[in-house]
Amino acid sequence: MAITPFTKQQLIPQEEKLEIAKHKSELFIGIPKETSYQERRICLTPDAVNSLTSHGHRVMIESGAGLSSSYSDKEYSDAGAEMTANPQKVLSCPIILKVEPLTMNEIAMINPEAIVISAIQLKTRKKEYFEALTKKKITALAFEYIKDDGGSYPLVKSLSEIAGTASVLIASELMINNQFGKGLLFGNITGVPPTDVVILGAGTVGEFAAKTALGLGASVKVFDNSITKLRRLQNNLNHRIFTSTIQPKSLLKALRRCDVAIGAMRGKERCPIVVTETMVEHMKKGSVIVDVSIDTGGCFETSEVTTHEKPTFIKNNVIHYCVPNIPSRYSKTASLSISNIITPYLLQIAEDGGIESAIRCASGLKNGVYLYHGILTNKVIGEWFNLPESDINLIVF
After folding, report:
1. For the chain, percent helix, then strand, then coil, each to nearest 5?
2. How confident is residue 11, by pLDDT bands cut at 50, 70 and 90?
3. Are the C-beta atoms of 92 and 109 separated by less than 8 Å?
4. 58-62/28-31 β-pairing
5. Which residues of 245-254 are buried (b: 16+ CB within 10 A; e: fewer)?
6. Phi and psi at residue 46, in whole multiples of 5°?
7. pTM of structure
8. Residue 17 pLDDT > 70
9. Helices then strands (H, E): number in the chain?
10. Opening angle at CA 101, ends 110 and 364, nearest 5
């Protein structure tokens, strides 16, 4: 049989490709006490710390960091954490783990070339924040940008689930406990008309608000301008409910009848205002508005930012609850949620041999990087603050 050029090529000895062995690395994580207003969460629970220390990693925690989430220093110490009252010592660790973004004072205390993993809360950042991190050649990852294998944002989704569920529970408290409340039980009692709930937005917050309201027996109406989101919501609920695009006449009709209105809209920059003050004036006296969208400006024209200490105000005879960062109210649940999501990523970083190797292996983790050794790698941040940015795929490959 004649040997063709193709078979000749097959017969030529080829170079053997050897698998490069991964060298595991030991992590040294510092968790400072949260100093931001109303922030009560912590990134790692004692069980998560125990999981890390049993793998040979070190975790240093500032004393009292877990108290507002009902975790004592002793629980962390028993789990293998090193406790210290000195924030400078914690912030000098190679990896800093924090719920809220670092303050300018904290940035001044961290070491050059450190790794920072925290939320970024882009709309509350200033240009100086990124410039300070760049100056210290920090590698920074944002909770909001980290993706999972399915391409979704697990930390954002988890906290949205808490906010959606909480919005209904908060409304149920206000309907009975507030002096101005209507004395209504949130639910469906035989012979009594069910509570009427209007939800604006069919995203994760809206979906979990609807699930909770339906579970309590309420009648639910959901408005959103995305038919795709409304269809997905119907399928996820496995329950046929009233859904509609946002049309002023039908929305006003629903608001006039409702006992509770929940704002769960999102926008690229500021949340769109879909309920005008005139619409609020037509709502029933003693009805409740819970504006979860207040984090991005609110979707009710009458919304004003309130605090966990003074969460409500009354306007046009309607009770308004407009507290940003609702998950912080349920600090232990939120801390457990963050910890369960972030711990596997930390273990994976160690398994891969450090952050450099980990972001090469995991595209979801790479997506979370917005600063790499002081180089801005996020296009949105670059455009927002007019800062030079580079594609991380051209730096890490």
Report:
1. 40, 15, 45
2. low
3. yes
4. parallel
5. ebeeeebeeb
6. -55, -40
7. 0.86
8. no
9. 16, 15
10. 100
Strands (DSSP E) found in the chain? 28-31, 58-62, 82-84, 95-97, 115-118, 139-142, 196-200, 219-223, 242-244, 260-263, 288-291, 312-315, 318-321, 369-372, 375-376
In terms of phi and psi (left: phi > 0; alpha: psi -120 to 50; beta: otherwise), the region of 384 is: alpha
Beta bridge partners of 58: 28
Backbone angles phi, psi at 242, to 5 degrees: -70, 125
Which residue in this structure is represented by tokens 């609020």? 280
DSSP alpha helix (H) spans, 142-275: 154-177, 204-215, 227-237, 248-257
Q: What is the mean pLDDT of residues 28-38?
A: 92
- Cβ proximity of 355 and 343 under 8 Å: no
- Summarised one tens digit per residue, pLDDT across range 308-337 is 889 999 999 999 999 988 999 999 999 999
